[in-house]
Design a protein that fits this description.
eight-stranded mixed β-sheet, about 725 residues, 2-enoyl-CoA Hydratase, Chain A, domain 1, alpha/beta, about 45% helix, Rossmann fold, N-(1-d-carboxylethyl)-l-norvaline Dehydrogenase, domain 2, globular, binds (2S,3S)-3-hydroxy-2-methylbutanoyl-COA, six-stranded mixed β-sheet, 28 helices
């Protein structure tokens, strides 16, 4: 038996010193060290290749381990560098690992994503710690794996699993990865590095080396695999018709089944090259960074260090309150739901139970998971019962006097330092804050309906809210799995306020001759999963009715929206009443155009003498979205949002804006700020005050600049 002496060496001389080489017990350890996530930045691929070659030339090395330093294995290519020239591709460095004459073991912990997992798939063996999260999330960035991932994963895990992983972009846990054959062993109890060396020693003399590229193609598909491929094809045609990446990913997986490895890789390379420079991918990459940027609070750099909420309370068990409570429970955070009357509490708890039961029935939640989540939700009837909670979210209906009273009571009972949050969607945060003796601890946490589904949480800062309170609220929302952006306090805050003009224009266009189905079709063709009228039928036409009445009473210049008002007064409140903008037959959720709506529209037009005309699709799209772009510019110039990209995050996660368009403001830039301003100015002349162009929009247009370069304000 040969003597294995322990030999540690310093960092290898790769440019960025992001890959280190060491030999221990006859095993070469190639470690990627590029914080925070070990992305494959400049020099990393080169470093890996140099180390593999060095280990192969090193007579004292029998086997090789590839691992990541810090919290992760490798989180994939450096997204910021996509679209620019890379001296060495992931394809090449992965191929070098696979070609090694000495066995290479990938030892994964934390995230092994994209090019990171592709490097691992090219290794001869893969082990993982229980916390490892594996995935190929490229389609979420509008690209496909480019390092042989489509070819190797399909050969290793079969086409059904491979398609699921690639098309969903989801993270696969270690256990599932082992079940799928992606991981050979899970290492529990020992440290991964030691276990990897032991594993590598165990396979050091085994030959031939298992190389994914050598696995046979042209395999006969099982019935289940054929069905999975078929389902993927159908789903792509239906759900991803605006996107290229999913269809290309499917094409590459199919190629892995029928073509030699090198041909499959060449196809993957060609498709990736096209996608990398596509508008769809640029927009999706922008959205990735916009989301992360929105989590940063200027002046409160310690956001990441905010404590985790251990217990929460929700006041009000209505639709919003129960949705928020479920969001806590879904994240494993114990939550108390407070309703003073037994009846209201029972109704809320039943709603929660029913919502989970529907998920169990659909198969997206197991009975065990439902029980575990319900066990985290406790109904209570007194304020004293919630006094100890770290955070409380008030979610009762929008009446100032009631909210003031609630915040007074919270102030009296809640422990010092508790986060006092309101889910109000419009009322000034200062009104609630001033009802307490600790306004610095009060902020808005504005969730979007249905709160257990929609990912946005708009954190609203009142004039006295402390930066730490904002940071803590953001941390809480992130721990709940939400995406956050900060807004300043004003009517509607930033998200809804920027959307109201779009809602107004869609109603007013009806009076001028457009139909709900025509407008819905334009927005679906643009990329929304559903048109705004169909969505309004789900949320209920009555939701904004009272608000409009209030605004009309307060402001004589308020432009009334006669069509929705009349529909509500006729009892047409949407799906829940079987009719709204559309008719619904026998509880069916399919919207059918309805002559009654057309008659109401015609009556309003005739009564007010509104001339009728036809609309092009482009006019509809522009009229809806430019109205909101203009309002968003006003929100920014008033300092009610930090950044242009925060508005995009709100639209993506609060309103289902098509992600491949980047967001409202990103999209507006693709049209051009100047063109937007020009049109807004024209409509200002035609329709009057509500189209008054914002100062910021005018300035950017005059300078020939882009909206997304506009400097954000400090709230
Ligand atoms: N490139 C550049 N920066 C990245 C990055 C990446 N791949 N991943 C994360 N960051 C930055 C991020 O912007 C943030 O920066 C910080 O790291 C922490 O991230 C060849 C072509 C790994 C699950 O799509 O999904 O491989 O804001 O706040 O919540 O086929 O980051 O602090 O300045 O998100 O703990 C495929 C993307 C690339 C993974 C960690 N890989 N990353 O989440 O932290 S394409 C991905 C994530 C590719 C190959 C192809 C998440 C995470 P800052 P974070 P987190």
């Amino acid at each position: 038996m040969r003597l294995h002496k322990q030999r540690l060496e310093g960092k290898l001389m790769n440019q960025a010193q992001t890959v280190t080489y060491a030999v221990e017990d006859g095993v070469a350890l190639i470690a990627v060290n590029n914080p925070p996530v070990n992305a494959l930045a400049a020099g990393v691929r080169e470093g890996i290749m140099e180390c593999v070659m060095r280990a192969n030339a090193d007579a004292e090395v029998d086997a090789i381990v590839l691992l990541g330093e810090g919290k992760n294995f490798i989180a994939g290519a450096d997204i910021r560098r996509l679209g620019s020239v890379r001296p060495v591709s992931t394809r090449k460095s992965a191929a070098t690992l696979e070609a090694s004459d000495k066995p290479v073991v990938a030892a994964m912990h934390g995230y092994a994503l994209g090019g990171g997992l592709e490097h691992a798939l090219a290794c001869h063996y893969r082990i993982a710690s229980p916390d490892a999260r594996l995935g190929l999330p490229e389609v979420k960035l509008g690209i496909i794996p480019a390092g042989g991932g489509t070819q190797r994963l399909t050969r290793i895990a079969g086409p059904a699993a491979s398609l699921d992983v690639i098309l969903s972009g989801r993270h696969v846990g270690a256990e599932e990865a082992q079940r799928l054959g992606i991981v050979d062993a899970i290492v529990d109890g020992t440290d991964l590095r030691t276990a990897a060396i032991r594993f590598a020693r165990g396979v050091a003399s085994r030959r031939p080396l298992p190389r994914a590229r050598d696995s046979a193609q042209g395999i006969e598909l099982t019935e289940a695999e054929a069905t999975a491929l078929d389902a993927a094809r159908k789903s792509i045609t239906k759900k991803s018709r605006h996107l290229k990446a999913p269809a290309y990913a499917l094409e590459c997986v199919e190629a892995a089944l029928t073509r030699p490895f090198d041909e499959g890789v060449a196809l993957e390379e060609a498709r990736f090259a096209e996608l990398e420079s596509s508008e769809e991918s640029k927009a999706l990459r922008y959205a990735f960074f916009a989301e992360r940027e929105a989590a940063k609070i200027p002046g409160a750099e310690s956001t990441g260090k905010a404590p985790r909420i251990r217990s929460a309370a929700v006041i009000g068990a209505g639709t919003m309150g129960s949705g928020i409570a479920m969001s806590y429970a879904d994240a494993g955070i114990p939550v108390k739901v407070l309703e003073v009357t037994r009846e209201a509490l029972d109704r809320g708890m039943l709603r929660i139970r029913d919502t989970y039961a529907v998920r169990v029935k659909r198969g997206s939640l197991s009975q065990g998971e439902m029980d575990a989540r319900l066990a985290l939700i406790e109904g209570v009837q007194s304020y004293e019962a919630i006094a100890d909670c770290d955070a409380v979210v008030e979610a009762v209906f929008e009446r100032i006097d009631i909210k003031q009273e609630i915040f007074g009571r919270l102030d009296a009972v809640m422990k010092p330092g508790a986060l006092l949050l309101t889910n109000s969607s419009a009322i000034d945060i200062d009104i609630m804050a001033n009802a307490t003796s600790r306004p610095q601890d009060v902020a808005g946490a504005h969730f979007f309906a249905p709160a257990n589904v929609m990912k946005l949480c708009e954190v609203v800062r009142g004039s006295k809210t402390a930066p730490e309170t904002v940071a803590n609220a953001m941390k809480m929302a992130r721990d709940m799995g939400k995406v956050c952006a900060v807004a300043g306090s004003c009517d509607g805050f930033a998200a809804n306020r920027s959307r109201v003009p779009m809602m107004t224009e869609m109603m007013l266009m009806l009076e001028e001759g457009a139909t709900p189905e025509q407008i819905d079709k334009v927005m679906v063709d643009f990329g929304y999963p559903m048109g705004p009228f169909a969505v309004n039928d789900i949320s209920g036409l009555d939701v904004s009715y009272e608000g409009r009445k209030r605004r009309a009473a307060a402001n004589p210049e308020y432009r009334k929206l006669h069509v929705p008002d009349r529909l509500v007064e006729m009892g047409r409140k949407g799906q829940k009443t079987g009719a709204g903008w559309y008719a619904y037959h026998d509880g069916d959720r399919t919207p059918h155009p309805d002559d009654v709506v057309k008659q109401v529209i015609a009556q309003v037009a005739a009564e007010f003498g509104i001339p009728q005309r036809t609309f092009t699709d482009e006019e509809i799209l522009h009229r809806l979205l430019f109205a909101s772009v203009n309002e968003a510019c006003k929100i920014l110039e008033e300092g009610k949002a930090y950044r242009v990209s925060d508005i995009d995050v709100m639209w993506l996660y609060g309103f289902g804006f098509p992600r491949h368009r980047g967001g409202l403001m990103y999209w507006a830039d693709t049209v051009g700020a100047q063109a937007v301003w020009q049109q807004v100015t024209e409509w200002h002349e035609r329709y009057g005050k509500r189209w008054q162009p914002g100062r910021l929009l005018g300035e950017i247009a005059a300078a020939g600049g882009a909206l997304r370069e506009a400097k954000g304000a400090s709230l």
